From TrEMBL, chain A:
Keyword Cell membrane: no
Keyword Membrane: no
Gene Ontology biological-process entries: protein neddylation
Domain E2 binding stretches: 353-436
Protein known as: NEDD8-activating enzyme E1 catalytic subunit
Organism taxonomic ancestry: Eukaryota, Fungi, Dikarya, Ascomycota, Pezizomycotina
Automatic annotation (TrEMBL), chain B:
Annotated family: Belongs to the ubiquitin-activating E1 family. ULA1 subfamily.
Cellular-component GO terms for this entry: cytoplasm
Protein name: NEDD8-activating enzyme E1 regulatory subunit
Organism: Clohesyomyces aquaticus
Higher taxonomy: Eukaryota, Fungi, Dikarya, Ascomycota, Pezizomycotina
Name of one Pfam family that matches: ThiF
Amino acid sequence: MDEATGTGLPNRPGAQRMRWKYLDNILTRHGPFTDPDWEPGEAAIEGLARAKLLGAGGLGCEILKNLALSGFQDIHVIDMDTIDVSNLNRQFLFRQADVGKYKAEVAAKFVEKRVKGVKITPYCGKIQDKDEEYYKQFAIIVCGLDSIEARRWINATLVGMVDDQDPDSMKPLIDGGTEGFKGQARVIFPTMTSCIECQLDMHAPRAAVPLCTLATIPRQPQHCIEWAHIIAWEEERKDITLDNDDPEHITWLYQKALTRAQEFNIPGVTYSMTQGVVKNIIPAIASTNAIVAASCCNEAFKLATSTNPFLGFPGTDNYMMYTGDESIYTYTFQHMKKSDCPVCGDDNIARPLQVDSDFTLQEFLDSLAERPEAQLKKPSIRSQEKSLYYQFPPDLREQTRPNLSKKLYELVQNGEEVVITDPAFPLTFKYKLVFK
Amino acid sequence: MADLPPPVQGPTAKEKKYDRQLRLWGATGQRALEESHILLINNGPGVVGLETLKNLVLPGVGNFTILDSAVVSEADLGVNFFLEEEHVGGSRAEHTCNLLKELNPDVEGYFVSEPVESFLTNPDSLKPYTLIIVAAPIRPELLARLSEHASASSIPLFYIHSVGFYSHFSIHLPPSFPIVDTHPDPETTSDLRLLRPWPELVQFAEEKTKDLDNMAPDDHGHVPYVCLLLYYLKGWKKSHSGQPPQNYKEKTAFRDLVKNSARTNSPGGGEENYDEAVAAVLKSLNPPEPSSAVKELFKDPECLLVKEGASAFWIIAHAVSLFYTKYGVLPLPGSVPDMKARSADYIELQNVYKSKARRDVTEVTESVRFLERSIKRSTQIEEKDIEAFCKNAAHIKLVRGRPFHVMNAGKTVQWGERAKALAQNLTFQDSLIPLYIAFLAYDTFTVSHEKDGLDNPPRTPGDTDTDADVEQVTGIAFKIADDLIKEAGASIEESEYSEMKTWVGEYVQELLRAGGSELHNIAALTGGLVSQEVIKVVTEQYVPVDNTCIFDGVKSKTSVIRV
């Protein structure tokens, strides 16, 4: 049989298909776990070539390489960042000479050159720049984003896109994240299975040090650095916008912190620690990124080809937690969808939130940033009856500002529902305030 | 002159580049990485080994060498990222080495295109390497020879196999592989010795809680919780015939006592230091017992009898065990968690702990020096090593490395003292031991199906006649499982046994479906795992896999077993 007289697929000609010899063993053979109705061969190969995928975020290098070598041919990539020298220890598509260039562009060009036949379309910007129309074109979205905010945004957007009448509007989201030797890979079928918002409390933010500790009784080197960062800069260099990447600025903070630490006999302030605290640096290594990104892409491959069961199928495991510092440990489980999830839950259910009725509205709003189940930084709030506080527009803000110093019990009833919005998210959060 | 502002030590170019990893393994770990020379013996499609190297070149391993006699084929381009079209027909060792080197100019890379058979005929050929990684498939006599070399020269040896959606790797470490810097979770490491306070701590607590009831509100709210707990413990002991809270019931009663002693008329409605004290009761009112692993260590023959030529680790271990025998506790780690307190009080408290820790180190050091003299050690163990040992004594790990299974035709697998535990696990729902057995059967098949008696690679099961091969490999796998059950003397229920056989059969089928192929994602994931373990072994930090890890990419699960 002459293989070159194929179906006109880009990879069909014999020599080209020789390249995918290994992949084709899997694509052309049944396995013990494949669906009996699954058709191996041509259809599977064709499906893989046609699927358009989106990759994004700090795991982007790994994701692009893995998708390209999984046989996907039409890949888009979004990344707003430019290359920093501290990326080079793990983001393997970048070189010293690329520092300062857009990650998405450099990565796309590199992988296109290395893996012949793959088309990679870069977009240098934020995922939030794009709308539903844009996200609609993809079969699967693979994200290795480094901010929880961006994750919640894409999650809410994909959930919002789902139209019950149109099965094609449901876009599976595969999400990976790492921190040092730890990470996770999860698959979300928007509206069908537990979403990122349902799982929000699995990623609790670190508790902030109280301001009074920083101002009056520092005990740790980090307290001195935070003092320099939050208080001293405001006092002494208010007119200069702090730039975390400006060595002069970091040096200034470092010296301020060091002087303060000496005053209180606190050892341990270093330049590197100053940088870490100010920029909130999370350790990141090549190995964990490789593990988590490959796990995400393995799920994308299984999902797109049906060559094996994948994580995320409703009613099955959808989350793999990974820990690599003490031996190797993974925990793969099914995270359950929450009926009171503000993103994918029942519209009529408000999530109960325990609050101290003695809190002022200001204190309550501040606490929302840290509460694992909320994590909202710029909340506006209204009760069923009135606007309690609005960040925007300015005149409404002025009008509602006096409420900030009022106690919660003066503003709402125990068990009353409130609606909170935050500019970072395209949705409203419904909470039921339960007094402690 | 002494008051000059300290010079600003901005980071060096290297520190900038490696910043995100230096925060994990520090400058000492980095140095160890840079001093190593990794040999990759690459076989098969050759992806998993290169993906491993990628994650070692990026963080700055000193040197690597690729030994690979394969010629680049068209099929390599669809699975291997470190090859390009124009390399087809060339040496795979050479081209992959060059493209890997591009990742990091600080790394030296070498290649050898010679077959491993002839490479190993030179007895010195393995000498330059500090760690060896072998990617399957490889002929068993060669793997056995590498294993002998690993044993003889105490060089860590990794054996990796990635096929289709599955992979596994085994690590052969030296028989005594201690790790001092295990990086335990900071939550678990605080050791405040509240039940065994020493005079200076008692005195400090008494000073800070003097006239506690009549303290001004601001003072009362800033007494460090360590002092509060010691204060209330003293009161408790008086009414409990000198005993601290013994069990859960008493501890919760004690916790309530502390909770109810907090003032409620403060501006914030409570006191943070009391909240902290209450939260600390259950976890810090335990006698400071070393873990069973550390007690095991003290009973080890190498620790009990330190002989001439003993390593620094065993000498310090012996000295610390003497300390433990004398006092019933390990040397004090000396760190204090952050707590609500005035700056000066907290610093003073820190110093109380630090100076006790230093005294403990001094005492251990004296024993170390005595031992050094008695075994006529020519060099002194560095103080910082003794200090590090004392600081982390409760979390020290000793891995007893051992050779992994090398399959040989006609020979049964010896499971030894691991047989019982593994046979027991064999029938667990989530066990990946059936997958490991499938891999062993896969290796056995390749041994017995060599294409010729010469240097050609063995035949890959599933490459052409899958069904026939599945039948054979399944048969081999069943025999391995039966032998394991027999060796363990285990009795397994019929229903469990047949279920286990179903699993083994399915694993074999899925393995052979790949026909020896590597899937890039599985190779990349496994390469991530292996490189992580290489880094742990090279830096002697964190805790490595002991000794076999299995990955199931269908279910997205891993499992670690000791074989």
